[in-house]
Amino acid sequence: MIIKIINAINEFLRRLKYVSKNIMGLPLIGEFHNKFFIEPPRLLTKKFGKASFSPIVVEIPINDNTGIEDAGKIVNDLYFKKKPPIMFNVCFACARPSLFKGGDYANPESHWFNVFFGFYEIDVDAALWKRPFGFKNASANDLDFDDLLKIGKSDWNFFSNYLYGVPKNECLKYSSLTDSIKTSIINTNITIGTHKFIEAEVSGVKVVSAYVSKQDNKKLLKNDGILTTIWQSAFGRPKPSNKYPDSFIPATMKLHFYIRFEKSFDHDLNSDAYKTYIYGGTINMDYNGSVNNDDFLKAQLEAVRASASKIAFKKRLKWFKTP
Question: pTM value?
Answer without folding.
Answer: 0.88
